[in-house]
Amino acid sequence: MAHVVAGSDCWPFTGGVSAFDVEAATVRELIGALDARFPGLGDFIDRKMAFAIDGEIHQDAWFSPIGPDSEVYLIPKIGGG
Known about the structure:
five-stranded mixed sheet
């Protein structure tokens, strides 16, 4: 299972839990699994968060693969303009 670390932005949904293991093969599956465990978190992640998967940052990456031993960090999306 992938090890997921969520920052304080996600704590209102997780009750302060910042790390958990999730069974998912893609970012889309990860978002679905997290939303099932923590209702509302999936939509929040989809709109506001990016992913660092094994040290590589991904934004809007629903189909990015996640390995069974991956480390996934949820980080705020970077905006610019």
